[in-house]
Here is the input.
Amino acid sequence: MHLQSVIAQEAKFPIVKDFGGIFEIPESTENPDANKEFKIIIDLVSGSEDPTQINRMVDNIARMMNLHGLGGVKKENLHIKVAVHGGAVFSLLNNDFYQKLYGVNNPNLPIYEALKKAGVEFYVCGQSLIARDMKTTDVWYGTQIALSMLTVLTKYVPDGYMLLRF
Here is the structure.
């Protein structure tokens, strides 16, 4: 294995610009099918341990998309939906509410903007918001309010969306 070629590389961002950097693996024999259409729904539940840092699981969505792009999958063939609930709802707060809680701008908003620009759709669990005494107006404008994460999953999984949990 030529690990040297991997170490010397710069990160690539084929679909989500500036986030989710990934690296070419020339020796890879298992790659995504570049001619396939991918329908993926992500159950995003993990929160960030440090509110001043990007939630690594949000960045992982960008990594997943960029890995498929590096494997030759066109952006148009990636249909990604994200159901945000549990501790992950804090990553989706607008700056005003985030600043009230943590005293800093929400570091996740730029990556959410980049993901939305790449075609990702976001749904925040209304039940998770109520459980945390939050209002629907406390979340980032780029998300849709869902009755629950559970109903989002039960709507899209039967329609052929592969379920991943981050």
